[in-house]
Specification:
Elements (H helix, E strand, L loop, with lengths): L12 E6 L3 H4 L5 H17 L4 E6 L24 E5 L10 H7 L4 E7 L1 H14 L3 E10 L13 H13 L8 E4 L22
Parallel strand pairs: 1-2, 1-4, 2-3, 4-5, 5-6
Length: 202
Amino acid sequence: MTVTPASGAPPTPALLVIDMQNALVAIAHRASATVAAVAGLQARARAVGAPVVFAQQQDEELAPGTDGWRIVSGLAPVAGGTVVPKAAPDSFLGTELDAVLRARGVTEVVVTGFATEICVESTARQALSRGYDVVLVADGHTTSVRPAASGRYAAPEASVAHHNEIYRNLRFPGRRVRVLPAAEVDFGHGSPSSGPDAPTSG
């Protein structure tokens, strides 16, 4: 089932915030700037009634209820906000994310969060495969800080730039893929919610 709107129809976007949790943001490159960019998007999305959905990792290192597992205070969901627990890099795998987006009529996912080359990348690709258009927010995703001697990993700034460039040039049949800075993301066509986003997790 495709969720892409008919040709010429405006998209119905949702902001997706992936794994912006205390323990992960603590090791993130450009952490404060990324949180600020996502917070601005969050405020603008809510102002026009566009859904804001959080994907929240939980595993043996991020146990539910611990401080490290919690979403950072600068982005914490408002009462009634939608939080989708996940256990894999792909935020759709074994979760309610697809159902949550479809229930709100979403056709375009605005992707932000941590970590660029793992959960952000896995989720963005899966969103395309499931029929959604994708906006990757150029300054709204990040990865871990890595010492120069950490092996063959790309430096964090290089990894972010690399993935932005990949998505600028990615062609996906029947989908629109864009890379935009947070300041240029437009939620103006987002359909107002019929009520508060029902939480799927505390």
